[in-house]
Design brief:
Blueprint lengths: L2 H7 L2 E2 L11 E2 L7 H9 L29 H8 L7 E3 L12 E5 L2 E8 L2 E7 L5 E10 L4 E8 L3 E4 L2 E4 L9 E4 L21 H4 L12 E2 L4 E2 L10 H5 L3 H7 L44 H7 L5 E3 L10 H4 E3 L20 H5 L2 H5 L28 H4 L2 H4 L10 H5 L2 E4 L3 E4 L8 H7 L4 H5 L5 H11 L11 H8 L5 H10 L5 H11 L5 H10 L5 H11 L4 H8 L8 H11 L9 H20 L4 H13 L3 H14 L4 H13 L3 H14 L4 H13 L3 H14 L4 H13 L3 H14 L4 H13 L3 H14 L4 H13 L2
Helix pairs in contact: 14-16, 17-18, 18-19, 18-20, 19-21, 20-21, 21-23, 22-23, 23-24, 24-25, 25-26, 25-27, 26-27, 27-28, 28-29, 29-30, 30-31, 31-32, 31-33, 32-33, 33-34, 34-35
């Protein structure tokens, strides 16, 4: 077959699932014409070789169909995966939900799902609160639920809050249900389907499509979001494949470096690796894993994180394009178990499996998404079945649910109403921690009628010499999250000790950043030298609270750190007054790093958090007009984002315009009538305006509406005391301390006010808790001794 005949044999068709108008796909893929195709593609551009031996042309995305000819097995597996169906145009083949005039009612609103002219619609409340018909343009996912996407003006695509439970009817599925039941969401609420927190372009798109570019225009506040493939294709993980195709077709320029076969990253961490079984029944990796390329690629989507870039060049390193969450309170339990929707990355990094060198594809086929071995055989790859897959180990009847490895070591938590996800920290069950710390445990998750104490006794009988497991940070994190006595020493000890879990050390440093004592800054200074960038960036957060000279001395060297996120955060901590203390060389590096920080925020310019971050940076650098503008933009994007309103009001106050601050807070309160933080800020403004009577009502409302913040109760108590109501002040303090027993300021105030009123026993109790909290403060010890002499 001649070249021209090969060319004519190609059949092309327009693929409506792609948003890029220059993209087409072949209906047939045949090896004999492969090189000809590459030659055709190459004829449209000139390829030059750079000084390093590579090509100066940026690689481009070519689509998963281009991979099928050479990687038929992987391609076939991928077509049956959830990645393949991550996002699809809504049609009869892809929509699973009942659109046969089905209705669903929640919070007094009835939505109707129907078809018209072969298209799918939902009649529900729109941005204006009125019932309207909206076309479903795309499906999201398959099982155990499927969501639906609707286009709104400005290029916004929104995720409907009503989802289809695609499980079998026998499992409770085949029904419509609300993802936020009982919330009574209305338009204007960020979680309403039309709201900012249900925006596909920001919240969902990256992980459900390939080569996703948001293309947000800050001036028009519109999106022109594009993708090369609507679903998660081959290049979502491997990166743009045009250079790989040239490599495969031997069309690479003479003298050019082929590198990783034309890819920026090659997943070779498991190449040549074996796992011989050791004498103790545990397999050991034949060679240590020295990189985390595969794990970091999966973490781009399978982690709780913030995205700061979509440039393929930044995607080569996780922390150049993303900021992963650490094991923070609210996201994780104190012992590292999943709590909020955190996916798998943070859990896996704290596990013994990660420390042993296991990667994601040791257990999961990366193309089909299925387990490489079903059942207990998966764990049996590395844990000898004759020792561990027996009743002598798991103490359950063979073949029962309790005999599954995952039941005890990977318990599930249910998200999105129906999606039970395994905890990938792969931990040893610790019901004793449930007794002491209140954390969940796998035993009582199955034995729902039993107590944690019952489970603790059972495990102790089975294993008198218990194995504490990998999560040895639990006690320290629990103390810190409760702000309890001993928290600082425990965190310092853990953060300064060698640890096989970088994310645990980073999480300890993150907690220390909230209490940056001199000792904490010293520990963080050492952590700045860690090999793990996640540890280094958490250490930066501690050092950023130090004095200017210390910041310059410790953080200036990090302005050329190999990790973008570390450079960014170091620059951010040096912005403002410390800039003037940098050398000329350091200033040049600072300029580049702070530009990276600004670019990271502008990547999410549609979000109020990013605008507030830019505003605060401008404020600290003395650009007040720019700061004011960015705060105002944040509030225009989301009037419910009270942090921007409070910060903007504080900016106006510091510029001497208290009246403007008052007006800003009142507008925010009108939009957020139950916001304790706004009520508290308005109360402070009224105090400055000498309007004590009105201020008291706002202080009281703040303490009532936000009892989770002890500052509000403390300030209310101070105000009550100063207006001649010491008894009421003490009651407020006691109520605050009932929720936050070690809030230092409230304890000091209660000790003082109780002494003043002659309530020495009450004062002694507060003083003794202060000694517990800060045993090195001699004045607290003297106060206790003084009060003991007065208590009869």
């Amino acid at each position: 077959m001649t070249f021209m005949r090969e060319l004519k044999s190609l059949q092309w068709h327009w693929d409506p699932s792609r948003s890029m108008p220059t993209t087409a796909t072949r209906q047939a893929s045949r090896r004999p014409i492969y090189a000809a195709l590459v030659s055709i593609l190459a004829s449209f551009c000139t390829i030059t070789v750079d000084a390093a031996g590579g090509t100066s042309e940026k690689p481009t995305f070519v689509g998963s169909d281009a991979c099928r000819a050479c990687h038929a097995r992987e391609y076939k597996n991928w077509t049956s995966s959830h990645h393949h169906a991550a996002m699809q145009p809504a049609n009869n083949d892809t929509v699973l939900g009942n659109f046969d005039n089905a209705t669903f009612s929640e919070d007094g609103l009835t939505s109707t799902f129907f078809k018209k002219d072969g298209r799918f619609f939902v009649r529900t409340d729109g941005p204006d609160g009125q019932l309207s018909d909206f076309e479903v343009r795309y499906t999201f996912g398959l099982t155990p639920l499927q969501q639906y996407l609707i286009e709104l003006p400005g290029g916004r695509i929104q995720a409907l809050g009503i989802a289809w439970d695609s499980r079998p009817e026998s499992d409770g599925g085949q029904r419509w249900y609300h993802l936020y039941p009982g919330r009574n969401l209305k338009p204007g609420d960020p979680l309403h389907w039309t709201g900012i927190d249900q925006n596909w372009n920001y919240q969902c798109a990256w992980c459900h499509s390939t080569n996703l570019q948001k293309n947000y225009d800050s001036n028009s506040r519109t999106f022109q979001t594009s993708w090369s493939e609507i679903n998660v294709g081959c290049e979502a993980c491997h990166g743009p494949a045009s250079d790989h195709i040239k490599w495969a077709a031997k069309a690479w320029p003479a003298g050019a470096q082929t590198g990783n076969k034309g890819f920026s990253v090659q997943f070779d961490e498991r190449k040549g690796i074996t796992w011989p079984m050791g004498a103790a029944g545990h397999a050991v990796r034949s060679a240590p894993r020295t990189t985390s390329k595969e794990i970091d690629t999966c973490a781009q989507c399978h982690s709780r994180r913030q995205q700061i870039s979509s440039d393929p060049a930044d995607l080569r390193a996780l922390l150049d394009a993303f900021r992963p969450a650490t094991l923070d309170a609210g996201l994780y339990h104190a012992d590292g178990q999943q709590r909020d929707e955190v996916y798998n990355y943070g859990s896996f990094l704290q596990s013994k499996m990660h420390a042993a060198g296991v990667t994601c594809s040791d257990c999961h086929d990366p193309h089909s998404g299925k387990l490489v071995v079903e059942g207990n055989g998966l764990c049996g790859q590395c844990h000898a079945a004759e020792r561990f897959d027996t009743p002598a180990h798991h103490h359950h009847t063979a073949g029962s649910a309790g005999a599954k490895c995952t039941s005890c070591h990977m318990p599930t938590a249910t998200y999105m109403g129906v999606d039970a996800r395994h905890d990938h920290s792969m931990r040893i069950p610790r019901p004793d921690r449930s007794v002491l710390l209140g954390t969940p445990n796998a035993c009582t998750q199955c034995h729902t009628g039993k107590s944690a104490a019952w489970a603790q006794d059972a495990v102790r009988k089975w294993y008198p010499s218990s194995n504490p497991g990998a999560q040895n940070f639990a006690d320290a994190f629990d103390l810190a999250d409760r702000q309890a006595p001993g928290a600082i020493p425990a965190l310092l000890k853990f953060a300064s000790a060698p640890s096989s879990s970088g994310i645990a050390k980073a999480s300890a440093l993150s907690r220390l950043s909230r209490i940056p004592t001199a000792e904490a800054i010293n520990v963080a200074a050492e952590a700045l030298k860690a090999s793990d960038p996640l540890v280094r960036v958490s250490a930066v957060s501690v050092v950023s609270a130090a004095d200017e000279d210390t910041r310059v001395r410790l953080l200036a060297p990090l302005l050329e750190d190999p990790s973008r996120i570390v450079r960014m955060d170091a620059a951010r901590a040096l912005a403002g007054e410390p800039e003037g203390k940098l050398s000329e060389t350091e200033k040049s590096r600072f300029t580049a790093a702070i530009a990276e920080y600004v670019a990271a925020q502008r990547h999410n310019a549609e979000r109020p958090e990013a605008q507030s971050a830019l505003a605060t940076l401008a404020w600290e650098r003395g650009n007040f007009a720019q700061a004011r503008s960015a705060f105002q933009t944040a509030l225009e994007l989301d009037p419910s984002f009270v942090a921007a309103a409070i910060s903007l009001a504080d900016l106006e106050r510091r510029l001497g315009n208290e009246q403007a601050a008052d007006e800003i807070l009142r507008r925010s309160l009108a939009a957020n009538p139950d916001s304790g933080p706004v009520q508290h800020a308005l109360g402070l403004s009224l105090i400055r305006q000498k309007n004590t009577q009105d201020a008291m009502s706002y202080f009281s409302a703040a303490a009532k509406n936000a009892p989770e913040d002890p500052r509000f109760g403390y300030v209310l108590a101070i105000a009550l005391h100063d207006t001649g109501k010491p008894g009421e002040a003490r009651e407020v303090l006691k109520n605050t301390l009932a929720r936050h027993p070690f809030h230092r300021d409230s304890l000091m105030a209660l000790a003082s006010y109780a002494m003043e009123s002659g309530q020495y026993a009450e004062a002694l109790d507060a003083a003794q808790r202060l000694v517990e909290l800060e045993p090195d403060r001699p004045e607290f010890s003297r106060l206790v001794e003084n009060l003991k002499s007065r208590v009869k």
